[in-house]
Specification:
This protein is of the alpha/beta class. It is built from nine helices and 15 strands.
Length: about 325
C-alpha cells in the first residue's frame, strides 16, 4: 500500500498543486493564478476546485482509499494545531482566517469530498520537502533559507519540523542584523529581509550604479532601464566580472552569513539548505556567506559548517505540504 496526498503551495501570485506519492514523488502538478481579489472565501473556493480536479485525476490510477489528505503551505503566520492563517503579507485584506476548517468545509459542500486538511507556513513546508525528498535527506538538523521576494526559513530538528510555541519559528527574514540602520521592513529596523529581500537588493544596486563614475555593465542586461533591474541581471553581469554586481552579491552573501552565524551560536545548527529564486546565483552568494559565517562564529563552531543548494526548486513547497499528511 502506497499512500498519496495532494500538496499545495499557496502564493500571492500562483497556486501550485500536485499529486504526491509518499514513496514515488510528484505524479502530476498544476499551476494556476491566485485569485487574491476574491478574498478568503473566494480563494478557498478556488483551492477546493483545484483539489477536486487533482483528486479525480489521481483516482483514475491511484487507490482513493490510500489518499492521506490535503496538505497546504501558506504565506504568513500559521498555527498548525488550530489551522489558522494570520495576516498573510501576500494576500491583501486577510486577517486571521480559519483556513483549514474553511477549506475542509468547502470541499465537503462544494465538491462533495471529505478529506483531512493539514496546513503550515510555506517556508516550513519547503523545509520539510527538502528534508524528506531533497537536499536535507542526509542531515539530522538543518535550517532552510528561502531567498526571493522575501527571506523565509524553516527549521528541521532531529528530522522533524520545529514550529516553536506559536508556529512562527524559523522566520529568518525578521532576524535583526543592523538595529541602528535605515532599512525597515514591516515596521522593524535592520532585518535580514529589509536588507537582502529582492526589492532591497535591487534598490541597493541602483544606488551603487548611480554613485559610480564608471557605471556598470549590468545596464545592457536590462536595456539600461533600471526600473526593470532584477537579481538575474545582476547575476549575469557578476559572472562577466562587473564590479558593482559582484559587490552587490558579496553584500547579500555577507548579510546572510551574519544571520546564519547567529543561528549557529544560538542553536548549534551547522547545516544550511539555501533555496528560493535568488539562490540561483549559487557561489556568488555561497562563498561570501560561508566566509562571513566563519568570521562571525568561534573556531570551535566551525566543524561541520555546510551550505548546500536546495534540490527541489519551486516544487519543494508541494512536496512538503503533501508530507504534512504522511505524519
Amino acid at each position: 500500500m502506497s499512500r498519496w496526498a495532494i500538496g499545495i503551495d499557496l502564493g500571492g501570485t500562483a497556486i501550485k498543486a500536485a499529486i504526491v506519492g509518499e514513496n514515488t514523488g510528484i505524479h502530476i502538478d498544476r499551476t494556476i493564478p491566485t485569485d487574491t481579489a476574491s478574498g478568503p472565501a473566494g480563494l478557498v473556493s478556488q483551492l477546493a476546485g483545484i483539489i477536486a480536479e487533482l483528486y479525480r485525476v489521481a483516482s483514475l490510477t491511484l487507490n482513493p482509499g490510500d489518499c492521506a489528505g490535503i496538505g497546504l503551505g501558506a504565506p504568513g503566520a500559521v498555527n498548525a494545531d488550530k489551522g489558522t492563517l494570520s495576516y498573510p503579507p501576500n494576500l491583501p485584506g486577510w486577517a486571521i482566517v480559519p483556513l483549514r476548517d474553511d477549506l475542509q468545509t468547502c470541499l465537503e459542500k462544494q465538491e462533495q469530498l471529505s478529506l483531512p486538511v493539514f496546513i503550515d507556513n510555506d517556508a516550513n513546508a519547503a523545509a520539510l520537502g527538502e528534508a524528506l525528498y531533497g537536499a536535507g535527506r542526509d542531515f539530522r538538523d538543518f535550517l532552510m533559507v528561502t531567498l526571493g521576494t522575501g527571506v523565509g526559513g524553516g527549521i528541521i530538528l532531529n528530522r522533524k519540523l520545529y514550529r516553536g510555541s506559536n508556529g512562527t519559528a524559523g522566520e529568518v527574514g525578521f532576524m535583526i542584523v543592523d538595529f541602528e540602520g535605515s532599512s525597515i521592513h514591516a515596521g522593524i529596523t535592520g532585518t535580514i529581509e529589509s536588507l537582502i529581500g529582492k526589492k532591497s537588493m535591487v534598490n541597493f544596486a541602483r544606488r551603487m550604479i548611480e554613485a559610480s563614475p564608471s557605471g556598470s555593465s549590468v545596464g545592457r542586461f536590462c536595456n539600461h532601464d533600471y526600473t526593470k533591474l532584477s537579481p538575474r541581471h545582476l547575476e549575469h553581469a557578476a559572472r562577466e566580472g562587473d564590479e558593482i554586481s559582484l559587490a552587490v552579491w558579496d553584500r547579500v552573501g555577507s548579510i546572510l552569513g551574519v544571520g546564519l552565524a547567529n543561528v549557529v551560536s544560538l542553536m548549534d545548527i551547522r547545516k544550511f539548505v539555501i533555496g528560493g529564486g535568488i539562490s540561483a546565483a549559487g557561489n556568488l552568494i555561497f562563498v561570501p556567506a560561508l566566509d562571513q559565517l566563519r568570521h562571525s562564529t568561534l573556531p570551535s563552531m566551525h566543524d561541520g559548517l555546510e551550505l548546500v543548494s536546495a534540490l527541489l526548486g519551486n516544487k519543494a513547497g508541494m512536496y512538503g505540504a503533501a508530507a504534512l499528511c504522511f505524519g
